[in-house]
């Protein structure tokens, strides 16, 4: 995945990005950002490999959940009752597949619009025989607004979203108060939000925005130790060797 022109990518994960339209203040019902003015992505150029295309054709019908503006029945989608974690933007699916393999007792509902990334995760699903992943190849903001019921998620993962380094672009960052309020609403009591970034100014913003949401509680005094399930990718390892930092934030939903 490629960052938009003028945004220097960080050293680790490929970026998951946000895009605001002319009116950042428009809101849909329930405090959800209006789908025409904020998205959880920007379309990126990319080429789907033969293996990814084959995975899309062979595994897509079983593991891709079509977007529909109605509440998703998790048990029907996954074929079982289990705690469900939403991931917003999984890139090429390396961390997603690792976590799903490590936690087979959990369902992972993963949003990504980048077709090569969807194909790459489907390929990993086939290679690793993973049964607990479903993909919605659609804007996560609309998925949250229409498909995710309140108090239904066990967790949310947002790993290395695009930091939008330039000050004038900061408003395009994904982790903003309206989205965090919606995520908190969709979490069951005790559920968690886990964010990670390699851009310190964005980590500071995340800490403030998450900390300002009254329905959430920080599990640490500020930044959290990296949870055992989040792997170090080759990009992250490379960055750490160069002295770059990574900041994890884990907040939980308070009791209603």
From TrEMBL:
UniProt keyword tRNA processing, yes or no: yes
Gene3D superfamilies: Vaccinia Virus protein VP39 (3.40.50.150)
GO cellular component: tRNA methyltransferase complex
Keywords: Methyltransferase, S-adenosyl-L-methionine, Transferase, tRNA processing
Entry's transmembrane regions: none
Pathway: tRNA modification; N(7)-methylguanine-tRNA biosynthesis
Chain spans, region Disordered: 1-36
Positions with biased composition (Basic and acidic residues): 16-28
Residues holding substrate: 166, 198, 233-236
PROSITE patterns xrefs: SAM_MT_TRMB
Catalytic activity: guanosine(46) in tRNA + S-adenosyl-L-methionine = N(7)-methylguanosine(46) in tRNA + S-adenosyl-L-homocysteine
Family, similarity comment: Belongs to the class I-like SAM-binding methyltransferase superfamily. TrmB family.
The protein, known as: tRNA (guanine-N(7)-)-methyltransferase
Organism (species): Ramlibacter pinisoli
Gene from which the chain derives: trmB
């Amino acid at each position: 995945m490629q960052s938009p022109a003028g945004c220097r990518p960080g050293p680790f994960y490929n970026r998951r990005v946000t895009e605001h339209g002319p009116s950042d203040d428009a809101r849909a019902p329930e405090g959800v950002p209006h789908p025409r003015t904020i998205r959880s992505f920007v379309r990126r150029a990319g080429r789907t490999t033969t293996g990814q295309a084959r995975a899309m054709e062979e595994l897509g019908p079983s593991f891709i959940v079509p977007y529909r503006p109605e509440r998703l029945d998790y048990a029907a989608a996954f074929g079982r009752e289990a705690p469900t974690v939403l991931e917003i933007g999984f890139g090429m699916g390396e961390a997603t597949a690792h976590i799903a393999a490590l936690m087979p007792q959990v369902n992972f509902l993963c949003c990504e619009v980048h077709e090569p990334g969807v194909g790459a995760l489907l390929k990993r699903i086939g290679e690793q025989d993973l049964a607990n992943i479903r993909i919605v190849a659609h804007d996560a903001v609309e998925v949250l607004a229409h498909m995710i019921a309140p108090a239904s998620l066990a967790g949310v993962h947002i790993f290395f979203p695009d930091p939008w380094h330039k000050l004038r672009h900061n408003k395009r960052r994904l982790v903003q108060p309206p989205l965090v309020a919606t995520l908190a609403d969709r979490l069951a009591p005790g559920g968690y939000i886990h964010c990670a970034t390699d851009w310190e100014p964005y980590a500071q913003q995340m800490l403030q925005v998450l900390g300002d949401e009254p329905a959430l509680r920080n599990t640490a005094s500020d930044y959290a130790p990296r949870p055992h399930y989040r792997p170090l990718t080759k990009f992250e390892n490379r960055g750490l060797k160069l002295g770059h930092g990574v900041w994890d934030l884990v907040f939980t939903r308070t009791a209603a």
